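Submission checklist for the structure archive. All mandatory fields must be present; incomplete records are returned to the submitter.

[x] Identifier: Endonuclease III
[x] Organism: Paenibacillus protaetiae
[x] Residue count: 231
[x] Sequence attached
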Amino acid sequence: MNAKQKMRHILDQLAEMFPDAHCELNHSNPFELTIAVLLSAQCTDETVNKVTATLFQKYKSPEDYLRVPLEELEMDIRRIGLFRNKAANIQKLCRILIDKYEGEVPSKHEQLTELPGVGRKTANVVVSNAFGVPAIAVDTHVERVSKRLSIAKPDDSVLEVEKKLMKLVPKEEWTLTHHRLIFFGRYHCKAQNPGCPVCPLLDICKEGKQRMKPGVITKNRVVKPKKANEG
């Protein structure tokens, strides 16, 4: 099968495995989502959700984050990796939102990427989940899965992976595919001990086939994703 047929096969299998894939960062508005994604860099969604459970009770608006000393905000997010740098970026971001966007998170990708601490991946997550704009955010799971399934080459950059996915996946499926690739990478095709023996995509995965050869250790443990209401 050609590249698009192969992609269709992958999308159909992912749909069967994770029909309810969704953003697992808890949030109730675009502002909270932006803060949560900013905090998630080099940190698990689970840890971010534990921190934002109290953070979002204390801070409701950009103004709230600027009313406290930087050191207090740092202590509020100290369980997050790189918390000092992230706290500084949050306050800088909030100042820009107030001065330039009347306290609201902008909906355009190019505006979002100009905010401190907001890169291309974060902007893609925000525009797709908060504003319904089709986008594919390439995180560590999406990158790993795309390369294992030969959608992208091993030495492709994150941007190259994103471009290849955008070319092969129908635009109306970009956002859902992003979520399903994350679920597949987080709960099945993990960095360590992927679920190769029970993988429906083993037939097109060179790395998986190599792992399944006699003599190759294939210790596997599949973790089920949490449901949307489990936090």
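[x] Structure attached
Curator remark: DSSP finds twelve helices and no strands in the chain. Confidence is low (pLDDT under 50) at residues 218-223.
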